Amino acid sequence: MYRRWQKDAVDKYHSLESFNTFLGRLTPLTGPNVLAVCDTADLYSVLSVLHSKGRNPEVKVNTNPGFYYFLANAVQPEASDAGLVADVSTGTADSAAVTAGDGVRREAVVPISSKSTALTSEMFAKFFMLEAHPNVSHILLAIIDDDGSVSLTRVFNYVQPPFEGPETLPPLEAAEGGAGGESDDEGS
């Protein structure tokens, strides 16, 4: 059994959809601005990791530029105040964080293959052009190795001073609030 399904995630293994079911519901990327930074196996690896962590991933398609990403539940600091609830479907927020209807903050997770040779600063800038969240200030990059291992790392669309703790994490959308949360890493 894969390592990600050991420990606390064993009960989630049986509820993960199959690869073929996942492929069947993917909307094909078309158009001149498709960013080919990962394949469907990479996407499924990220889905698997996010599902095993209980992050309730939802695959999304950005059409211009064209790439897949996930909206996933953010890891919340235990003493945080989630604020007011916002409507994720419209991207509007009444506070600094977009939340699902149940008050859980959501954040964008963009899968990238570690073997991709097209990664430049211009390419990274395109990942912040989320149509559903036009003022995105940070995203999680899911970097997938050839063996299916996934590393999550937060990338900011600006220079970020060091954090003083998880409660200082800014909202995903800089101006109007957005999806955001705490990193899975202990030290972030």
Structural overview:
Residues 163-188 are annotated as: Disordered. The structure is a single chain. By secondary structure, the protein is an alpha+beta fold. It contains 4 helices and 5 strands, in the order αααβββαββ. It has one domain (3-168): Trna Endonuclease, Chain: A, domain 1. The chain has helices at 10-13, 19-25, 40-52, 121-127; strands spanning 58-63, 66-73, 106-113, 138-144, 150-156. The protein has a 5-stranded mixed beta sheet with strand order 1-2-3-4-5.
Shape: globular
What is the CATH domain class? Alpha Beta
SSE sequence, one letter per element? HHHEEEHEE
Annotated CATH architecture: 3-Layer(aba) Sandwich
User: What is the third-level CATH name, the topology?
Assistant: Trna Endonuclease, Chain: A, domain 1
Number of continuous helical runs: 4
Radius of gyration: 16 Å
Strand order of the largest sheet: 1-2-3-4-5
Helical residues, percent: 10-25%
Query: How many separate domains make up the residues?
Result: 1
The class by helix and strand makeup works out as alpha+beta
Proportion in β-strands: 15-25%
List the helices and strands and how they pair.
Elements: H1 10-13, H2 19-25, H3 40-52, E1 58-63, E2 66-73, E3 106-113, H4 121-127, E4 138-144, E5 150-156
Parallel strand pairs: 3-4
Antiparallel strand pairs: 1-2, 2-3, 4-5
Can you give keywords for this protein?
188 residues, Trna Endonuclease, Chain: A, domain 1, 5 strands, 16% helix, globular
